[in-house]
Amino acid sequence: MLSAAPVLAQQTPASLQALDETYGYRGARFESDTSVFRDLALAEKAGQTRYYRRKSEPKTLGEGEVADVTYGFYQGKLSVILLKTQGLDNSRAVLAALQQKAGAGTRASVFAQRYAWNGKKVHMSYEENALSNDAVVVVTCKKLKEKEMKQALKFQPTTPTGSSPRRDVLSGQ
User: Which of 23, 26, 44, 80 could form a cystine bridge with 72, CB 3.0-4.6 A?
Assistant: First the structure.
């Protein structure tokens, strides 16, 4: 029994290592500049992130069909990739492809189809809607996400001390 434990421990990091080595999706590598891509069409703007779709995007992953793939560029660098599936068969087929590449993933609850993979450089999550069985996969560059969060904290308004309404418990005021 003891000899099996080291083998299992070695398999998990190797799967996450594959996720880190891919460092993106279908040749689109994190931290790449938008100028590297020729076929991007702007889909949405949100703060300093611009979301694009590739016109020539293949719509399959493993045995599943992907309904939508969106690439998010924070300050002009690829930082997040969103994949959406529709229906049970497509969602589970895509999940199977993700697990084949990155391992089983961490599942917080047996009651929800939510999985997470946390590599050194890349974080990936899979979340399936319990009613529609549609799913969203989010693949994030940890380095750029951290930069984005730090930047957001710099500009977050803070309330001055003493300005929050406080009631004195003893006097009721």
Answer: 80
| Separation CA 48–CA 67 (nearest Å) | 25
Q: What are the counts of helices (DSSP H) followed by strands (DSSP E) for the chain?
A: 3, 11
Maximum distance among all alpha carbons in the chain?
68
Query: If DSSP codes are grouped into helix, strand and coil, which group holds residue 2?
Result: coil
| Beta pairing class for 135-141 and 77-85 | antiparallel
**Rounded Cα distance, 101 and 95, in Å:** 10
User: 108 CB contacts (<8 Å, ≥6 apart)?
Assistant: 114, 116
d(CA 71, CA 41): 10
Q: In what order do the strands lie in the sheet with 77-85?
A: 40-46, 49-54, 68-74, 77-85, 135-141, 122-128, 114-118
Instruction: Specify the higher pLDDT residue, 152 or 158.
Output: 152
Residue 33 has which token pair?
Answer: 């500049």
Contact indicator for 26, 58 with CB cutoff of 8 Å: yes
Task: Convert the pLDDT of each residue in 55-108 to its tens digit.
Answer: 888 999 999 999 999 999 999 999 999 999 999 999 999 999 999 999 999 998
